[in-house]
Design brief:
With 114 residues, this protein is an alpha+beta fold. Helices cover 26% and strands 25% of the residues.
Length: 114
Protein backbone atom coordinates (compact mmCIF):
# COMPACT_ATOMS: atom_id res chain seq x y z
CA UNK A 1 0.00 0.00 0.00
CA UNK A 2 1.50 3.33 -1.06
CA UNK A 3 1.57 6.22 1.32
CA UNK A 4 1.16 9.81 0.34
CA UNK A 5 4.09 12.07 1.13
CA UNK A 6 3.43 15.69 1.96
CA UNK A 7 5.98 18.29 1.00
CA UNK A 8 6.94 20.43 3.97
CA UNK A 9 5.58 23.93 3.72
CA UNK A 10 3.39 23.30 0.68
CA UNK A 11 0.42 25.64 0.79
CA UNK A 12 1.60 27.31 3.98
CA UNK A 13 3.61 30.40 4.74
CA UNK A 14 6.81 28.90 6.11
CA UNK A 15 10.05 30.88 6.06
CA UNK A 16 13.08 29.19 4.56
CA UNK A 17 15.85 27.95 6.83
CA UNK A 18 18.07 30.92 6.00
CA UNK A 19 15.26 33.32 6.80
CA UNK A 20 14.63 31.63 10.14
CA UNK A 21 18.31 31.86 11.01
CA UNK A 22 18.33 35.57 10.14
CA UNK A 23 15.23 36.18 12.29
CA UNK A 24 16.83 34.40 15.25
CA UNK A 25 20.07 36.35 14.78
CA UNK A 26 18.23 39.67 14.63
CA UNK A 27 16.23 38.82 17.77
CA UNK A 28 19.39 37.75 19.58
CA UNK A 29 21.06 41.06 18.80
CA UNK A 30 18.00 43.16 19.69
CA UNK A 31 17.10 42.72 23.38
CA UNK A 32 14.14 45.15 23.17
CA UNK A 33 12.57 43.33 20.20
CA UNK A 34 9.18 41.63 20.37
CA UNK A 35 9.37 40.50 16.75
CA UNK A 36 11.01 40.88 13.36
CA UNK A 37 9.27 42.50 10.41
CA UNK A 38 9.95 40.46 7.26
CA UNK A 39 9.34 41.91 3.82
CA UNK A 40 9.80 39.58 0.87
CA UNK A 41 10.44 41.13 -2.54
CA UNK A 42 9.64 39.79 -6.02
CA UNK A 43 13.36 39.39 -6.78
CA UNK A 44 13.94 37.00 -3.87
CA UNK A 45 15.64 39.55 -1.61
CA UNK A 46 14.27 40.24 1.86
CA UNK A 47 14.22 43.22 4.18
CA UNK A 48 14.11 42.57 7.92
CA UNK A 49 14.20 44.64 11.08
CA UNK A 50 13.41 44.03 14.72
CA UNK A 51 10.51 45.97 16.24
CA UNK A 52 9.89 46.83 19.88
CA UNK A 53 6.70 46.86 21.99
CA UNK A 54 5.78 50.32 20.63
CA UNK A 55 6.25 49.32 17.00
CA UNK A 56 9.45 51.31 16.68
CA UNK A 57 12.65 49.91 15.14
CA UNK A 58 14.78 47.85 17.53
CA UNK A 59 17.51 47.16 14.95
CA UNK A 60 18.81 48.43 11.65
CA UNK A 61 17.13 47.24 8.45
CA UNK A 62 18.93 44.23 7.06
CA UNK A 63 18.61 43.26 3.40
CA UNK A 64 19.73 39.84 2.25
CA UNK A 65 19.17 37.16 -0.36
CA UNK A 66 19.40 33.42 0.34
CA UNK A 67 22.49 31.67 -0.98
CA UNK A 68 23.94 34.90 -2.34
CA UNK A 69 26.88 37.02 -1.32
CA UNK A 70 24.89 40.20 -1.87
CA UNK A 71 21.42 41.54 -2.62
CA UNK A 72 20.42 41.73 -6.29
CA UNK A 73 21.41 44.59 -8.60
CA UNK A 74 17.82 45.84 -8.72
CA UNK A 75 17.70 46.20 -4.91
CA UNK A 76 21.11 47.88 -4.94
CA UNK A 77 19.56 50.47 -7.28
CA UNK A 78 16.07 50.98 -5.81
CA UNK A 79 16.39 49.58 -2.23
CA UNK A 80 13.34 47.32 -2.66
CA UNK A 81 10.34 49.65 -3.00
CA UNK A 82 6.83 48.79 -1.81
CA UNK A 83 5.71 48.09 -5.40
CA UNK A 84 7.92 44.98 -5.44
CA UNK A 85 6.72 43.52 -2.12
CA UNK A 86 5.20 40.06 -2.50
CA UNK A 87 4.66 39.24 1.16
CA UNK A 88 5.12 40.91 4.54
CA UNK A 89 4.60 39.75 8.10
CA UNK A 90 6.01 39.94 11.60
CA UNK A 91 7.66 36.91 13.13
CA UNK A 92 6.86 37.26 16.84
CA UNK A 93 9.24 36.43 19.66
CA UNK A 94 7.91 34.06 22.29
CA UNK A 95 5.97 34.98 24.38
CA UNK A 96 4.05 36.93 21.77
CA UNK A 97 2.47 40.29 22.60
CA UNK A 98 -1.30 40.31 23.17
CA UNK A 99 -3.58 40.56 20.09
CA UNK A 100 -4.26 44.29 20.54
CA UNK A 101 -0.53 45.09 20.70
CA UNK A 102 0.16 42.87 17.68
CA UNK A 103 -2.48 44.71 15.63
CA UNK A 104 -1.06 48.09 16.65
CA UNK A 105 2.50 47.07 15.75
CA UNK A 106 1.43 45.55 12.41
CA UNK A 107 -0.50 48.70 11.49
CA UNK A 108 2.43 50.94 12.44
CA UNK A 109 5.14 48.85 10.78
CA UNK A 110 3.46 47.27 7.76
CA UNK A 111 0.41 49.49 7.29
CA UNK A 112 -3.21 48.47 7.13
CA UNK A 113 -5.14 46.74 4.38
CA UNK A 114 -8.49 48.22 3.43
Amino acid sequence: MATKQHKKGKGTVSPEQGERAMIEGILEGSPDAVGVAVIRLDCGCRKMAAVNQSGDPASKIIMYRDNAESICDQCKTDNGPFMRVTEQFISWKSPEPDAHTQKMIIAKVLGTEQ
